[in-house]
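Students often ask why we bother encoding 3D structure as a string. The short answer is that it lets us treat folding as translation between two languages. Here is a chain of 112 residues written in the first language.
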Amino acid sequence: MEGNVPDQEQLLQFLRRLKEVFDVCDEDADGFIRVEHLVDLGLQFGQGDEVKKLTRYLDPNAHGKINFKDFCHRVLAIKGCEGILKMAVGPRSVASTQPSVTDNGYIYQVHC
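And here it is in the second language, the structure alphabet:
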């Protein structure tokens, strides 16, 4: 995805993968990743310092938890392509036939 604008299928595929990662880290399936859990995972894999730095970016207000929308925006910002999500986020049209990835009431939909 770096360097060029992805087509809608690439973007949807990327969002689905982000959702899979998010769901794995959402231990109690309440729609939030606990920062403490991410840090614990980082420590288990010998990446504690790196994960602590990452969590400061993912949770800049130090709330201790991250929802899927914020997770997507910040991961895309890290990759340098936060602008592409703006192209994909919008209200769901009744007539729309485009696939979407949803979480906690947020709808990510690709517009042609």
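Translate back mentally: The first strand starts at residue 32 and ends at 34. Keep this in mind for the problem set.
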